[in-house]
Amino acid sequence: MPGGRMYIVNSPDYISTIQKVPRVLSFWFIEASLTKNLGGISKHANDILMENARGDKGNNSLVVDGMKATHAAMAGDHLNHLTLNAIQRARHEVSAYKTGQEVELWDWVQHVFSLAVSSSVYGPQNPYEDERLERGLSYVHQCNMNTGLC
After folding, report:
1. Tally of helices (H runs) and strands (E runs) in the chain
2. 26-35: buried (b, 16+ CB within 10 Å) or exposed (e) per residue?
3. What is the pLDDT at residue 16?
4. Higher-pLDDT residue of 132, 146
5. Using CA atoms, how far apart are residues 9 and 18, in angstroms rounded to an integer?
6. Which among 115, 122, 121 is positioned nearest to 137, based on CA atoms?
7. What is this structure's pTM?
8. Inter-residue contact 140 to 126 (CB < 8 Å)
9. Which residues have a Cβ under 8 Å from the Cβ of 144 and sit 6 or more positions away?
């Protein structure tokens, strides 16, 4: 978090105290803050996403409700379905590789897995099919995730 503080809690004695004030130490706010860079969304869309990201204005928050829905959707059979779709897309990308074709191995593997995972989540509307956005995702991944700065 640029300009913010980060605390690492390594004592079980403090965990219950911290859990009693979830709006003060909120992962949801951090998640919402990084979404603009990760998803390439507009400033207006980011403003909507950030609205009540800490939950200060009651229980309704697009980011919190969205993340809770995502977590629920990624359990059990849903997760199995996502995993199968990712494997099928990875197989498709690997099959497109031509024997003897020279590739930068790390870049190629990262490309295959980026497309496999993102297409399993987004389906045919996958925004990361756009090579520019996919490379942007890789660039953000290389950034220091503790600060969100590159």
Report:
1. 7, 0
2. bebbbbbbeb
3. 76
4. 132
5. 9
6. 115
7. 0.50
8. no
9. 150
